User: Fold these one by one.
Assistant:
Number 1:
Amino acid sequence: METFKAILTKIEVREFSQEPVPFEQQIKVLEAGRAAASAYNRQPWNFVLINEKKLLNKIGELAATGPYIAKSQFAVAVYVDPKNTFYKVDGTRAVQNMMLAGWDMGLGSCWVDGIEREKVSQILGAPPEMYLLTIIPFGKPSRKYKGKKSRKPLSKIAFLNNYGHNLLEENKYS
Ligand SMILES: Cc1cc2nc3c(=O)[nH]c(=O)nc-3n(C[C@H](O)[C@H](O)[C@H](O)COP(=O)(O)O)c2cc1C
């Protein structure tokens, strides 16, 4: 898929089909995260690939705003090291890469924040000093998504040369 098309069509997916996702695709998602740029190239992240059904169910129970993790084919727990000033920015860049790589392979995903972090980290055996940024569930979408996003028009959020100066008369991406 063309990168720009992937960016424009990618929406969050919270309903997954039960079609298995090949392990190679799961690794490809992690590779996309690994390739992300980070401040000073410190790469302050670790990823835990979760693809055991029992574990996904357990984590789904600990995610108030993402119980659908239980229905995903795999999920990635993204840990970042708070000793690095830009740890959340760096981790987020890795997440975006993973999501877009997944989308390119026909996989939906969604950022889940509402997690009982301590409990999940204990289950995953993560060191207490590492911050669990998010858990991203992946899987084939269970239904067809149109890819229509609800976003502010470019004319409202971007300016030309001076803050407040109109950029476009008409915004084709609104
Ligand atoms: C930092 C962050 C936290 C989010 N937390 C959750 C969450 O806990 N549960 C959830 O279902 N979606 C969560 N989302 C997804 C947002 O609701 C979603 O990205 C936004 O509504 C745009 O969705 P769209 O791309 O499908 O239009 C989160 C997104 C971000 C960036």
Note: The helical segments are 3-9, 23-34, 53-61, 87-104, 117-124, 154-157.
Number 2:
Amino acid sequence: MIGYSDLASAFRELDIPPVAPSMVHASLSAFGPVEGGAQTVVEAILEVFPTVLMPTFTYKTMVVPDIGPPDNGLAYGTYADANRQAHFFQSNMPVDRLIGMIPEMFRLYPRAHRSLHPILSFAGVNADRYLDSQTISEPLAPFRLLVNEKAWVLLLGVDHTVNTSLHYAEKLAGRRQFVRWALTPDGVVECPGFPGCSDGFDAIAARLSQIVRKRWAGKALIQAIPMADLIQIALTWLREDPLALLCDHSYCERCRSIRLDVANLA
Ligand SMILES: [Zn+2]
């Protein structure tokens, strides 16, 4: 079993510049047993990194109308059951299960604040400027500021399929963004600028060998990548190959929609 000091030493060994903000993606189960669980991981992260953000997404607010914009990466009319199970967004809503226990514990940390996007919120400590930059129409706006301020991406026991920064690279490359809808106490809110699918994102790993720093913490591989370099590498690749980073699932509506865009441009 590992504990607070093992985690803090592994994080320190990444040798990230002391003032750099960090966008953290983490899986508790990847570490193996951790004394004190998710709370210990969050405390070790905050011991080492001064400014931390994590995604605190809430997909269960999502509803889909019967008709909407075309080429929107979804099959209208097939969401009646999902719509019935949707929840109203509230700022204290738990993080989606897929996002995990560590972001959920981080969101509840006394010094953490959360942005108010009803699907794609982030929580942060010492990160109000980044959180406040997010709007309904620009859910990825915090990444613009983070890149300018030499942020790092930390992948703690997870791979690039959860690396939200790559969505910002897709947006910069001009890749199609989608429209989604969220149930809120003020009614259904249209959320443009919704990113594509991330299932194919781990293909970027092979291109990062020069810039990634790796350590182990318990059973978890932890990786630190400078965000600006990551985004530049992804952007260069997307400009060379407009199909880069898409997934291979035949059922994936968003990747199919992007393939159609590329075919129509050719
Ligand atoms: Zn896909």
Note: The first helix runs from residue 4 to 13.
